[in-house]
Amino acid sequence: MMRMLSSPTKSSFRHVCARMYCANEANKDILDPAKQISKILMSCPKLGVAVALDQSGIRPTPESVEEVLKRFSNAGMLIYQFFDWASKQRHYEHSIRAYHTMIESLAKIRQYEIMWDLINSMRTKGLLNIETFCIIMRKYARAQKVEEAIYTFNVMEKYNVPPNLAAFNGLLSALCKSKNVRKAQEIFNTMKDRFVPDQKTYSILIEGWGRDPNLPMAREIYREMISDGCRPDIVTYGIMVDILCKAGRVDEAIDIIKDMIYNDCQPTSFIYSILVHTYGIENRIEDAVDTFLEMEKNGVMADVAVYNALISAFCKVNKLKNAYRVLNEMESKGVKPNSRTCNILLNHLIERKETDEAFKVFRRMIKICDPDADTYTIMIKMFSEKGDIEMALKVWKFMKKKQFVPSLHTFSVLINGLCENEDASQACMLMEEMIEKGIRPPRLTFGRLRKLLIEQRRDDVLEFLQQKLNLLVKEPLCD
């Protein structure tokens, strides 16, 4: 049984924050250039990022730059200023990984012209590779710029990076994951003689049709793969099991697993987790438990994914004590829970309106796993909807102390909560910070704040925010 803590109080949350940020941690930050840079970026310096970094005396290293770029990957405008500053420092050269992270950040805010400037810079330095173009194809496809994704593949030759099977698979994957599987199939049919398909090629298409969803086409590609003499691998089998389970064809999925075993391909814990998850959705908790026990009997070690599936199954049938027992078993067997474990429990408790219990779970889980953006957003939303905006802000501050960059959704949830609480000042501060980090606020969130500012007759503040937003939209990379 999970050991519960005392009822949550505001002072207890302060205690959690204080304990996790003791003096020793502060001393470590001074010696860590990535953390020093992160603090400067998080402070939104009025003199500008470059000036603040120059004054700090910090010297960037490839490792610290990569870490900062990864941490601030959602802050396109802000992080580009840092990237540009770092490139001008003596004895420093950007790594391929740094370029790739920056390209992804620019693509998120659709700054494609500057993104291609970086591609040209990489070409002059001889840093371009297949992965560079796969990243661009993925980003274009995700933005539903299908023709641009295909153009990127076709232009590789001009950049002295001849496309190969990996690039071909990258294009198909980008299109399938962005729900353009028909286009991917068309390209596959016209180019499969040029690039001989492998297991990964077929798996990409099968998964794409599964997401469509189009089970007959997924089956057809699976059969074509076998008839072409390309033997399914563990990934292909896993995709087919997943597609069939989502289509409610569990018996057929089990036949695939039997086929795996017949072909000397041992099912993994991931495949078992799909079955456990499916049984959980169908409220077949006994089948979920039996599948888990069968997995252990077959000598397959349970990982965090299958444990999460079992916890989710117990939550689905409101057997929270059993879910806690599974959590304790995970820890006793050395399987570390992750943010997904935490979020499953939090979502279930909040759905049942057990908010005090949810806060207890949150306090326990932050000690044993790293929360993700969803975790913080869930808690901020919970407190905001309860009308406890002070606690929502405490979670926000705790998140910032962990140097976790808020996502667009996290910003929006708290700004909406502040607007509901008619706290225009705090909402405006967050809106300004959001825009300064290069994150464009959703129309609904900005509209709600706009309405509140008009009601409070603060037209000057509204005009100031509107100007900042216009700058982000029109010239997002200007100081």
What does this protein structure show overall?
Keywords: Repeat. Belongs to the PPR family. P subfamily. Pfam families: PPR, PPR_1, PPR_2. This is Tetratricopeptide repeat (TPR)-like superfamily protein. It comes from Artemisia annua. The chain is an all-alpha fold and 479 residues long. Among the domains are: 16-128, no CATH class; 406-479, no CATH class. It contains 28 helices and no strands. The protein has helices at 10-20, 23-31, 33-42, 49-56, 62-71, 76-87, 96-108, 112-124, 130-142, 146-155, 165-177, 181-191, 199-211, 215-227, 234-246, 250-262, 269-281, 285-297, 304-316, 320-332, 339-351, 355-368, 373-386, 389-401, 408-420, 424-436, 443-455, 459-474. Helix 5 (62-71) packs parallel to helix 7. The longest helix is centred in the last third of the chain and has 16 residues, at 459-474. The chain is globular, with a radius of gyration of 25 Å. Mean pLDDT is 90; it is low at 1-29 and 475-479.
* Residue share in β-strands: under 5%
Supply the helix-strand structural class.
Answer: mainly alpha
Order of helices and strands: HHHHHHHHHHHHHHHHHHHHHHHHHHHH
Q: For the report, how would you describe the main beta sheet?
A: none
Instruction: Please report the total strand number as a whole number.
Output: 0
Descriptors:
PPR_rpt; Tetratricopeptide repeat (TPR)-like superfamily protein; mainly alpha; TPR-like_helical_dom_sf; disordered N terminus; 0% strand; single chain; 479 residues; 72% helix; repeat
